[in-house]
Amino acid sequence: MKPLGLLMLISAFTLTAGFLDHRPDFPLFDSGDHSLLADIMTTADLVVGPAHDTLLIDSNYSQFGNLIVIGNGTVIIDDAELCLYGVLWQQDSSTVIVRNDGYLHVMQEYLSQYPHNMEGDSRFEATDATVYANTTYRTFLNDNSTYIARRTHFPFWNFRECYDNSSLILEDANMVGDILVEDSCFVSFTRCDTILPWFGAGDGAIIDIEFPDYDSIEHYEFDSTQPGISGVKYSAVFDSCSMFMPGICPAVGCSVIIRNSVFCAALRVSGSDTLYFNGVSNRKFYIDFTMPFHDRHFRLVDSYTQLWCIYTYDDVVLHMDSCFWGESHAKDNSTIFAEACSTNGFPSSVTSTENGYFSFIDGKVTAFISSWFNATTYIENSIVTPTRPGIAQRSNIAHHHSKMLCVNTVFDTLPFAMDTAIVIFAFLDSLDTVATCEEIPITGSAWVDVGPECVDDFEGYSVFYFDGGGETEICGSIEEVFDDTLAIWNTEGIEGDCEIRLEVRTTEGETLRAKRDVLVVSMAVKEVITPDNFTISAYPNPFNSAVTIAFDCHSREGGNPEGITVEIYDVNGRCVETVTEPVEVTIGVEATVGRLAKDTSTSSVSVKSPLSKGDLGGFVVWQPAPSLGSGVYLVRASVGNESTSKRIVYLK
Predict the structure, then answer these.
(1) 142 with 1, same domain?
(2) Any idea what DSSP says for residue 14?
(3) Does 169 share its domain with 42?
(4) Are residues 497 and 618 in the same domain?
(5) Are residues 602 and 507 in the same domain?
(6) Domain co-membership, 553 together with 483
C-alpha cells in the first residue's frame, strides 16, 4: 500500500464555545441519536486537524474507528476505497473530498450506527465518486456546512437532514433518498432521481398548495416566494428530476392544506397531550380530512397519502387503532399504544428511543423493529416479516440499555441485544381445546438475550394454569427453551375454560408473561396404539397461496396408530380448519379428503400420497379461505393420545 500522504494525528483538542449545542432538535426518522463528539471518541479514532493538515488516501485503506476532521484539516480520497468502521465527523472549516472514482464505504450494520455529522463551516465534496454505507446512510448538515455531490453514485438509500444555514447541492446523482429541509437552509437538485424531500412547516408557516405531479418534474421550487407558501425560510429547487415524491412535515403552530396531490406526511407530536388516531392509512385517498390536532391545522383535500410517518416526543400519549403507516417512533418520555395496526416495510417501522415506550399488539410489521437509549419496545400477538431486509438495518435489535419485550410474536429473524440492552422472549403455542385426564405438552419459547455489557440475564421460567379459582404452577425451569416443550400439563380433575400463563424472569427482577386461552373438555378414553415417533413439517413456510403439511407416524407396537386429525388455528386460538374424520394412509394407497368442519367451497384441504410403508402418514395441502388474513397459524396434528404442532406464516 502506498503511504497515506501528509498526516498529522492530534491526540487531544479543545472543544470550542458552543460546541455542545446539540443539533438537530428532532431527527425525523430517529433510530438512535447522532452523539456529541466527546461521547463518540475512542482511542482508535483518526483525527485530522486542527492545523492545515491533509490526509491523502490514494490506495485502499480501512479505518477501524471514527474519522474526525476538525479545524482546517482536509481528507482526500482519490481513486481509492476508504472502508470506514466509524462516524465521519466534520466541524469548523474542515474539508472531505472524494474524487476520481474514489469510494467512501461506511461499514455500518444498521441505521445511524455510523452517521456523517457536519458542523460549523465544514465542507464535503464528491465528484465522479461512490458513497455507500451498506444500509441507509444518514448525514446531518448543521450551521453553515456545505455538501456537494456531482456525478456521484449512491447504491443505496440515503437520508440527509438540513438545518440552520446549511447547503446541499446534488447534480447527476442517483438514489438521493430522504431530504429533510428546515430552518434557513438551501437545497438544489439537478438531474437527480429517487427523491423524497420532506418540507418542514414550522411555527407561523402557512401553506395551501397543490404539489406537482409526482415521478418526473422539469422545474419546481418550494419557498416563500411561491404562491400559497409563507413563513418558510428555506429554499428548495429541483430541475429535470425523476422519481420525485414530495413530503410535508406540519409542526406546531403551522397551517397546512394539501390539495389534489399525491404526497407523504410526517407528523411530529410533542407536549403532554393524549391523542387518538383511528384508520390513518398509507395509500388512501382523502376527500376532505383534517387531522385531530389542537396545536396546528393540517387538512387534506382530494389528496392521496402514499405514506404516513408518526413520531411522538416529550410526554405525549398516542393511541393508534387499525392504522397503516410507514414508520413510527416513540421518543423522550412519550408512549405509543398501537393495536390492530400494520406497517409497509419502511425503515424503523416500530422504534422506541430515549426513554420512549412503544406497545404494538395484534398487528403486522413488515420491517425490522428496534429499541434505543433506555427505551422499551413491547410487541405481542404479532408477526414481524421484513419485506425489504437491509434497507435500514439487518435484524431486530435492542441497543444502549434498552429493552425489547416479545410476547407470542413470530419473527423471520429472532431479535438480539447489543451492548447493555436486553431482549426477553415469551411464546406459548395455541392449545384451543384439550381433553381432561390427559398429559398435554405445552410448547413454545422462553429465553433472554443480553448484550455483552448488560448485567441482567435469564433466571428461569414458570408455566401456570388459571381456571378461575386461582393460579396453579405446572412447572418451572432454569433452562431456556427455544421452540420446544415448556411443560407437561396433567389435566386430571380439570374441566372448563382455563388460561395457560408463561412467566419469564431475569436475574435483575424483570418479568414478562405470555398467555393462551384453552378449553378443557371431558372425552371418552379408549385403548389406542400410541406412536413412538410422530412428526409434522410444512413447506413452504412462510407461504402465499398453499402450504403442504406432511405428517409421519411410526409405531413399534404392531398395527397402525389411530388415524390422524389435522387442525389449523389462528393466533387467537380459533380453529379455522379441521379434518374431522381420521385419515389412515399406508404406502401405495391414495387418501380421500376428510370431511371438513366448514364449507369446502371457501377453503381447500386435500390429503395426498403417504410417506413410508406400513406407517401412517401423508400430505395435507391447505389453501386458506379468502376470508382469512395474513398472519401466524398453528397446525396441530393428533393421533391416539399424542399430538404435535407447527407454526406456519401466511403472507396473503
Answers:
(1) yes
(2) P
(3) yes
(4) no
(5) no
(6) no
pLDDT for position 567: 81
Cis peptide before 50 (omega within 30 of 0): yes
pLDDT at position 635 is 81
Furthest-apart CA pair in the chain: how many Å?
90
Q: What was the pLDDT predicted at 12?
A: 30
Q: Render pLDDT for 490-512 as a digit per residue (tens, 0 to 9).
A: 988 888 889 999 999 999 999 99
Which band of pLDDT confidence, cut at 50, 70 and 90, is reported for residue 389?
low
DSSP state string for 24-36: -SS-TT-SS----
Final residue of a structural domain among 521, 542, 559: 521
In the listed set 111, 146, 177, which residue is the last one of a domain according to the structure?
177
Q: Are 503 and 563 within one domain?
A: no
Report H helices in 354-499.
Answer: none
In this structure, the number of other CB atoms found within 10 A of the CB of residue 216 comes to 12
User: Any residues with CB less than 8 A from the CB of 177 and at least 6 apart, and which?
Assistant: 136, 154, 157, 158, 159, 160, 194, 195, 196
Residue 214 and residue 242 in contact, taking contact as beta carbons nearer than 8 Å: no
Q: Residue 638 in contact with residue 577, Cβ under 8 Å?
A: no
Per-residue pLDDT reduced to its tens digit, 299-341: 999 999 999 999 999 999 999 999 999 889 999 999 999 999 9
CATH code of residue 543: 2.60.40.1930
| Domain annotation covers residue 600 | yes
- Show Cβ contacts of residue 589 under 8 Å, excluding neighbours closer than 6 positions: 610
- The pLDDT assigned to 586 comes to 38
For residue 499, the one-letter residue type is E
Which pLDDT score, from 0 to 100, does residue 34 have? 40
Task: State pLDDT tens for residues 17-40.
Answer: 222 232 223 334 343 334 467 777
Full domain range(s) for residue 9: 1-177
Number of domains in the chain: 3
Q: How far, CA to CA in Å, does 203 sit from each of 29, 197, 250, 266?
A: 20, 19, 9, 16
Residue 233 falls inside a structural domain: no
Indicate whether 406 belongs to any domain.
no
> How many CB atoms sit inside 10 A of residue 423's CB?
25
Asked if the model's pLDDT at residue 224 lies above 80, the reply is: yes
Phi, psi of 222 (to 5 degrees): -130, 105
Cell of 372: 434505543
Contact (CB, 8 A) for 194 and 241: no
Given a cut of 50, is residue 187 above it in pLDDT?
Answer: yes
Asked if 515 and 578 sit in the same domain, the reply is: no
**What does 593-623 look like in DSSP terms, one character per residue?**
PPPBSS-GGG-EEEEE--SSTTSEEEEEEEE
Give me 43's grid cell: 482511542
609, 484: one domain: no
pLDDT-derived band at 15, boundaries 50, 70, 90: very low
Instruction: Examine residue 348 and state whether it is found in any structural domain, yes or no.
Output: no
Residue 168 burial by CB count (10 A; 0-12/13-18/19+): exposed, middle or buried?
buried
Burial class, 42, CB count within 10 angstroms (exposed 0-12 / middle 13-18 / buried 19+): exposed
Q: What is the pTM of this model?
A: 0.73
pLDDT for position 579:
61
Which residue would you say has higher pLDDT here, 81 or 294? 81
Give the C-alpha separation, 147 to 118, whole Å. Answer: 9
